[in-house]
């Protein structure tokens, strides 16, 4: 009887003991979820209204000529600074939450089990479908590195995301022909994978700044603990704060440099020294396009103007690819997450690859 009575008591008391503990957790989880939804709505609204607000403020309230060089540069600076800071904070927060749910060991095992080629190919596909410029890709790159994804794969994404622009591909197809657009996408994808493959042969992790790895989310999961939603939010918020305080000033400086030279170099400047008779035209336009800091939609009309002035297609392609894949602001911001040797290797490899693509296009479309 005592044994039966003890069992009945246990069965009766167990739910009563568990219920007071579960209810507060459920209510807190609901509050956190509602807070996240409200925060997401505010972020989306801020991102969508960003350009319109600066256009109204500068062009309407202060009556600046936004089509002029000075007004355009000022508008570019404020709009792009806010855009990149919003992307930096928003993407790092989302990646922090996802990283808490991701089994890093399993993700690495998945990539390793499929081979390096599959990992590089997936990085290119992700890069193509993410409509980011060279600077806007950096937050995702930081999140992938912190999550333990192999550096060669994350660098492949960092190259492919701006380089293989779907906007540029559509515009190239409209201005240069569908065959040229297809060749552009294939060349950019193969270039990204080739650089990633070469870099995978070397140990480059030692040239990534330690702060990329030392996030709170990584520490939170270090002992195998499965964090709650509230813990994930707190950790993601701390990661954003830590990274944001380290990077924001470099974002402002980088965009300021890009705004100062944005659109100030006329097409005739390139046509004067990069004509078909100059064998060094491809490397010259590749280097001179870096300071322009334009996206795929902005660089194609410039490329078409150069093409109409008689520049070979490969020279024009090298110009466009360099302008959208490399930039001085990107270098300044990447310096916060890469040590100088890796930064030099990255920019050097992409520059050489674009030059090779330019010469190949000149041979194929001579």
Q: Can you walk through the features of this model?
A:
- By secondary structure, the protein is mostly helical.
- The protein folds into two domains: 69-246, no CATH class; 267-364, no CATH class.
- The protein is built from 17 helices and no strands.
- It has helices spanning 2-61, 69-101, 104-114, 116-129, 138-146, 151-163, 166-176, 178-199, 210-213, 216-220, 229-261, 267-271, 281-289, 296-308, 313-325, 328-334, 340-364.
- The longest helix is centred in the N-terminal third of the chain and has 60 residues, at 2-61.
- The model is unreliable at 1-24 (pLDDT under 50).
Tertiary shape? globular
* Global mean pLDDT: 77
Q: N-to-C SSE series?
A: HHHHHHHHHHHHHHHHH
Instruction: Note the beta-strand portion.
Output: under 5%
Largest beta-sheet details: none
Rg for CA atoms: 25 Å
Beta strand count: 0
Uncertain spans, ≥5 residues at pLDDT below 50? 1-24
Number of helices: 17
Given helix and strand content, the structural type is mainly alpha
Query: For the terminal residues, how far apart are their CA atoms?
Result: 98 Å
How many domain units? Answer: 2
In percent, how helical is the residue content? over 70%
């Amino acid at each position: 009887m005592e044994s039966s009575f003890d069992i009945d008591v246990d069965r009766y008391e167990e739910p009563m003991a568990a219920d007071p503990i579960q209810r507060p957790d459920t209510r807190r989880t609901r509050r956190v979820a509602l807070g996240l939804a409200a925060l997401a709505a505010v972020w989306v609204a801020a991102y969508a209204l960003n350009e319109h607000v600066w256009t109204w403020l500068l062009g309407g309230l202060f009556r600046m000529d936004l089509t002029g060089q000075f007004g355009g540069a000022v508008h570019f600076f404020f709009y792009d600074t806010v855009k990149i800071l919003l992307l930096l904070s928003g993407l790092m927060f989302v990646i922090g939450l996802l990283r808490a749910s991701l089994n890093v060991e399993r993700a690495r095992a998945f990539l390793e089990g499929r081979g390096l080629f599959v990992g590089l190919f997936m990085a290119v596909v992700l890069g193509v479908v993410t409509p980011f410029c060279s600077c806007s890709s950096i937050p995702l790159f930081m999140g992938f590195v912190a999550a333990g994804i192999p550096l060669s794969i994350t660098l492949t994404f960092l190259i492919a995301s701006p380089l293989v622009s779907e906007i540029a591909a559509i515009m190239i197809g409209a201005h240069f022909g569908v065959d040229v657009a297809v060749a552009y996408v294939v060349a950019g994808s193969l270039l990204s994978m080739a650089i990633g493959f070469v870099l995978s042969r070397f140990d480059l992790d030692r040239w990534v700044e330690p702060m990329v790895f030392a996030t709170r989310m990584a520490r939170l999961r270090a002992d195998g603990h499965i964090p709650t939603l509230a813990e994930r939010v707190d950790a993601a918020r701390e990661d954003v704060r830590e990274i944001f305080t380290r990077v924001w000033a470099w974002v402002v400086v980088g965009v300021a440099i890009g705004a100062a030279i944005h659109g100030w170099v006329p097409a005739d400047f390139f046509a004067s020294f990069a004509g078909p008779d100059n064998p060094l035209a491809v490397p010259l336009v590749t280097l001179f396009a870096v300071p322009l800091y334009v996206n795929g939609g902005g660089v194609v009309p410039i490329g078409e103007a150069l093409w109409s002035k008689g520049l070979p297609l490969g020279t024009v392609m090298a110009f466009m690819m360099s302008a959208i894949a490399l930039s001085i602001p990107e270098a300044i911001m990447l310096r916060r997450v890469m040590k100088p040797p890796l930064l030099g290797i990255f920019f050097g490899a992409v520059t050489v690859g674009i030059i090779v693509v330019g010469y190949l296009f000149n041979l194929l479309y001579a």
